[in-house]
Design a protein that fits this description.
The structure is a single chain. This protein is α/β, with parallel strands linked by helices. The chain has one domain (about 40-320): Thiamin diphosphate (ThDP)-binding fold, Pyr/PP domains (Rossmann fold, 3-Layer(aba) Sandwich). The protein is about 40% helix and about 10% strand. The protein has eleven helices and eight strands. A six-stranded parallel beta sheet has the order 2-1-3-4-8-7, with helices on both faces. Strands 5-6 form a two-stranded antiparallel ribbon. Strand 5 and strand 6 (about 215-220) form a beta hairpin. It is globular. The structure holds thiamine diphosphate and magnesium ion. The site of magnesium ion has 6 residues, from strand 5.
Length: about 325
């Protein structure tokens, strides 16, 4: 937090690309773009569905890159938790789980947008406008769209997991998806909630977005156990996979038939934990790999069209909302 008397946070600049960083210090083979991949899944999915899944990834990516620019420009000054690099997991899970209750953690623009939360309300939230999805008072994590059954986060890492168990206990059988991070998995109340969900047979899908980082600390320096082993110990099905979107979609459909269950997804955070900077240490680029797969399916022209349309949609949205803010809030607010 900044000092209440200070002029605000110092401007953020990306670090130099050569900054040393302990990426995958254990040389863990599970941190791989191919971990658990099943051949042929992309070709099996309906082509329009594959393109829709990519469209959701593109919306997150263009939106969060625009938020990054807005922060570097000084237009967004709240704490921001960007999901650039992590687009595939929420996009893929949402393909079969939209309409379920969904809870995310602080890094949740991707979840909100993939589950059809309103982009304008999210932009307004980050700009501090009263039309934001938390009244412009919450910022990046607590983004809600209750009509779409999206419940935002309050910043206490992992606390959405026991809340999700409560939602699943009272949902009348409706499914609940709860996203959380590999760091959150170490909180006692997260593990207790998983045990409770297993004991009560709750309709709850746990999705761990495992970017191998809790702020800057890699998993190997934090714990010796695997979350999938713990989930299996509780008696629930669990799978550990990379973030290939067709693979994530495949396991989401399979696991959601027998809840509660856990999917641990290996993914890469491209930007800083909080803020707009970039350390250039993502181990793979799932967004580009997804485009390559689609190109191999002769869908490159459709991909280009989606990117052009999404980029224009996001640019137009931010231009309009920045204009709106300048009209309703005094300069410097
Ligand atoms: C209970 C609690 N402990 C510590 C923090 C500080 N904190 C904020 S984010 C974070 C790391 C979370 O890592 P992870 O769950 O893997 O999510 P990621 O940021 O990687 O998406 C920590 C320790 C917090 N907000 N709440
Ligand atoms: Mg993490």
């Amino acid at each position: 937090m900044t000092d209440a008397n200070s002029a605000g946070p110092a401007p953020l600049e990306p670090l130099d690309a050569s900054t040393p960083y302990p990426v995958n210090p254990a040389n863990d083979p599970r941190r791989s773009p191919d971990f658990g991949v099943i051949d042929g899944l992309a070709e099996e999915m309906d082509r329009d569905d594959s393109l829709e899944m990519f469209r959701r990834m593109a919306l997150t990516r263009y939106f969060d890159l625009r938020v990054q620019k807005a922060q570097l420009d000084g237009d967004v000054d709240c704490f921001i938790y960007l999901a650039v690099g992590q687009e595939a997991t929420p996009a893929a899970v949402s393909m079969s789980m939209r309409g379920s209750w969904v809870l995310g953690q602080h890094r949740c623009h991707s979840i909100y947008l993939s589950f059809d939360g309103g982009p304008m309300a999210l932009a307004d939230e980050l700009l501090g406008l009263p039309t934001g999805c938390c009244g412009g008072l919450g910022g990046s994590p607590p983004i809600n769209d209750i009509d779409k059954r999206i419940i935002g986060h309050n910043g206490l890492v992992g606390d959405q997991v026991p809340v999700a168990a409560g939602v699943a206990l009272t949902s009348g059988g409706d499914k609940v998806v709860c996203f959380f991070g590999d760091g959150a998995a170490e909180e006692d109340y997260v593990l207790a909630a998983m045990g409770f969900a297993a004991s009560r047979d709750l309709p709850l899908l746990f999705v761990c977005e495992d970017n191998d980082l809790s702020v800057l600390t890699p998993t190997v320096e934090r714990r010796t156990w695997s979350l999938t082993n713990v989930a299996e110990g509780f008696g629930m099905p669990a799978v550990d996979i990379t973030d290939d979107p067709w693979l994530v979609d495949h396991w989401t459909r399979k696991m959601s038939e027998n809840l509660p269950a856990l999917i641990n997804v290996r993914t890469c955070r491209e930007l800083w934990h909080v803020g707009a900077g970039c350390d250039n240490n993502a181990e793979w680029n799932r967004y580009e790999l997804t485009k390559e797969t689609l190109a191999g399916m002769q869908l490159a022209a459709e991909v280009e069209k989606i990117e052009t349309e999404t980029s224009k949609f996001v640019e137009d949205l931010w231009r309009e909302r920045l204009q709106k803010r300048s009209e309703i809030l005094p300069a410097g607010t």
